[in-house]
């Protein structure tokens, strides 16, 4: 059953993309795509590259807390693991980065903790963006109130639990009682490392700034694509909704949230009056550029890694 899981997840993601395409209509999608000029597509592609670099830089800042990590060497392994994470389900990309711990000069547990902390900080920023943009958004569509408040409440609960789990020995002792001995021991080690991580305010601040820039660039990409199709909405609201939709990567039955994320985006933007065809094209352009970069970086750095270890 476990061997079939990756294929099943990929099939679910592909099925969702096909359903969205057929629902919106291929002809409509191509028409909307024709409205986007080459200049906008070039800007989006360049911004997509910057986002990947910021992703890598954000985790690297946290890894530096545990010791010196050569950035160029780390970048090579990060791009390889990022490509794997985009092509395979679950958190394979994160764990593949941990597999390179010997080359990076740190333990795999510290790498996993740095990746986890980066995602946690991003989650907190998503909540901040939701809070900042909520008042402006509710003026446009009051119907979003209940959806956003319930989702925000759940997300806050998850964040509070995760922070307490890694910073409070008392909470760790409670959770350890329900875990096998091997995992309980690993949790204790992660708890010790998390204290070291939490004490380095400079690197945490650097990660926070990078994560914020990353979210803003993601919102800017969609804002540019919508503007090219004649849709004018606030950059703040665009960034908030895209950040909110990015939580779909945690949906366990899809390939990195593909299909679910696009569905979330269509629903959320539909609530503020953006047509399904317009936002679907914007989401699909992002998806295409994402996997184009996956192929380019994956092939290049994969070859480098194989050559170095052959």
UniProtKB/TrEMBL annotation:
Primary localization: membrane
Location relative to the cell: Cell membrane
InterPro entries reported for this sequence: L-PG_synthase/AglD (IPR022791)
Domain of life: Archaea
GO CC annotations on file: plasma membrane
Entry keyword Phosphoprotein: no
Any single Pfam family the record assigns to this protein: LPG_synthase_TM
UniProt keyword terms in alphabetical order: Cell membrane, Membrane, Transmembrane, Transmembrane helix
Bilayer topology annotation: Multi-pass membrane protein
Transmembrane residue ranges: 43-63, 111-134, 146-167, 204-226, 232-251, 263-282, 288-306
Family recorded in the similarity comment: Belongs to the UPF0104 family.
The protein's name: Flippase-like domain-containing protein
Source organism: Candidatus Iainarchaeum sp
